[in-house]
Design brief:
By secondary structure, the protein is mostly helical. The protein contains six helices and no strands.
Length: about 120
Amino acid sequence: MRISLIAATLVALPLLAACGSSNSQSTDQKTAAQPAITQADLSKALVDSGLKDQKLADCAAKVYVDQGISQDGLRAMTKPGTNAQASDPDSMGLSKDDADKARAATQKIVTDCISK
């Protein structure tokens, strides 16, 4: 159980560290032209970036989506070629609002997904 908690934290921390980023690219046209990022897309991105527990990835993805992170934020979290464990957090481009939501989601993931 401790290893899962550590793994989840290692995956989530780089996502949360982008909280002060001013690289937000919110353009309605750009977002509208791209398909919506789903909970399944986010779960796959978490697994692809090193989280090996599929159930934990599914639970975490649900919490992130339910927290209301914008499509731009979800897109940043699932960007192809991004390794959430090794990526420069500032390059992910989360807005302050999305970073706050991601931080709250991570706390909820610890209680709802890992403690189960």
